[in-house]
Every structure is written in C-alpha cells, then in structure tokens.
Design brief:
There is one protein chain. With 103 residues, the protein is of the alpha+beta class. It has one domain (8-94). It has helices spanning 45-54, 84-100; strands spanning 8-9, 13-15, 20-29, 36-42, 59-60, 74-78. 24% of the residues are buried.
C-alpha cells in the first residue's frame, strides 16, 4: 500500500527511495464521476514498472495486445487519497516555475 511518507513527487520523477520513475503529471476531473484527480504518467516501459512497484493500488494500464492498442501506464490519484495533496502541490510547483521561466 502506498503512503505519503514514502513517495516523493519531484519535478520530473517520482521516488520512494528504492524505485524511481520518470513521469509527467496532469490534474483534471474524471468525466465519469466528476471527481478531481491527479494522473501520473510513466515516460517509458522501465518507468512503468517502477511506478507500478511504488503505487500498485493506483497503477493502471489499459493496453490490449490483442487489438494492437497500447498506452503508457499511469497512476490515478483521486481527491481524498493520502497522496493527492502532495501530487497536486507538485503540479502547482511545476506550473508556477514554468510561468516564471525557471527550469
């Protein structure tokens, strides 16, 4: 199970001190429920494995090899989850630095 104290959301990656996954972030409301969420997208196959190891209860990948439909893995963190506030704070920090022109 994931806990807020073990997972750190950095500008370009997520880590738990053991695994590290390069990621990108987005925040939006789910169309199906209207619930606010943060989605953490893995950048590569190796990053998908690391993200899944860190957040097994949040990780999803809806690829279907039978129909040649492939997508990158992601972790969807809904509002109310212990990691939501930290993930949302990272998005806000990334956005404020982008607007200010800081890399």
């Amino acid at each position: 199970m994931t806990t807020q104290t073990t997972i750190r959301f950095m500008k370009y990656y997520v880590t738990n001190g053991i695994h590290k996954a390069r990621v990108s972030y987005s925040a939006f409301a789910l169309k199906s429920t209207g619930q606010q969420c943060v989605t953490v997208y893995a950048k590569s196959y190796d990053d998908e494995k690391a993200l899944q190891a860190m957040m097994p209860d949040l990780y999803e990948n809806n690829s279907d090899a039978m129909t040649d439909y492939f997508e990158d893995g992601r972790a969807r963190i809904v509002k109310g989850h212990p990691l939501y506030a930290a993930a949302l704070e990272r998005i806000e920090l990334n956005s404020s630095k982008a607007v200010a022109g800081v890399h």
